[in-house]
Amino acid sequence: MKTIYSEQHRLRDAKTELYGGELVKPFERPSRADMVIKAIGESGLGKIYDPEEFSLDPVLAVHDADFVTFLETVWQEWQKTGYTGEIIANVWPARRMQCRVPCDIEGRVGYYAFAAETSISEGTWEAALAAKDVALTGAQGLLHGESDIFSLCRPPGHHAARDMFGGYCFLNNAAIAAQYLRDNGAERVAILDIDFHHGNGTQDIFYERDDVLYCSLHGDPEDAFPHFLGYANETGSDAGTGYNRNYPMPPGTPFAQWRDSLTDALAHIEKFSPRYLVVSLGVDAFENDPISFFKLKSDDFYTTGQLISELDIPTLFVMEGGYDVAEVGTNVVNVLKGIEA
Predict the structure, then answer these.
(1) CATH code, domain carrying 302
(2) Is residue 218 one of the residues assigned to a domain?
(3) What is the pLDDT of residues 66-94, one digit of tens each?
(4) Which of 159, 208, 292, 338 could form a disulfide with 284 if both were Cys (CB 3.0 to 4.6 A apart)?
(5) Composition of the chain by helix, strand, coil, percent to 5
(6) What's the confidence (pLDDT) of residue 114?
(7) Domain span at residue 273?
(8) Are strands 315-319 and 212-219 parallel, antiparallel or unpaired?
(9) Whole-prediction pTM
(10) Residues 9, 63, 158, 159: which is the catalytic one?
(11) 198: annotated active-site residue
């Protein structure tokens, strides 16, 4: 299996995250990708390739143009104000407020953010651009006949909505890749999101469409970030009705229960009969993950890969979460080895 990886991910090295009422070292950090690429190299899974460069056109196919411009320019604008810290949202258009884009940079940050935990630091935009290239290079590989490819994207992407950032995500790598596959001849594409947290951004992008099926296994939003999306009754709207499937699960969920949800999701994907499958590969369902509450063990990720492989659909794995830095590489490799078993 090919792995696509860029050292440019290191440009995203934020120093602050708002967590538990404190500014702490971010859980989403460069060492995550370091541990994954090290494990890939030691696993014998296959060669590691640099990404090709793509224009912004595939990004603009799923993201709002003004939002993309905001991400591209916000760090420079922030600095021009004289602010010396990293960018953290502190105001939002909450209930009964108007959703107008302010002129002031503080207001625009809040307009485009859906959460305050994710700071924007120097190099964030450049790293996000590289991550979308990693995802698109993987998608291009599928179009050229590869059966399975792993795109080691960092920063992750599945929380990035059409015009919002948060949850460590800025550009939605999986959505960009899925749309690219659609725009290059695939009539139907499915996205399976096995990250512990609901991919609110991916749902937002495809919610009214019937050409991209989205299935997400995640912590119940009553108990887990992002809290305000990911309930089971969110099944799509308009043409997309029935093409969005959420599997929220409670604290302490063991693999047996999680596997039942996965089996149901895989059955719906098989019925949908997509040309390609994109897997948002988060491994933060792991029992020791510091910001999650499922109880999957490392061996369970191998079984997960085996179950996905039974679909026999060309699959692009796009890296999302997984914050037990010591074990993130092992858990990712186990999924990929399960695919090739």
Answers:
(1) 3.40.800.20
(2) yes
(3) 999 999 999 999 999 999 999 999 999 99
(4) 292
(5) 40, 15, 45
(6) 97
(7) 2-12+28-54+122-340
(8) unpaired
(9) 0.98
(10) 159
(11) no
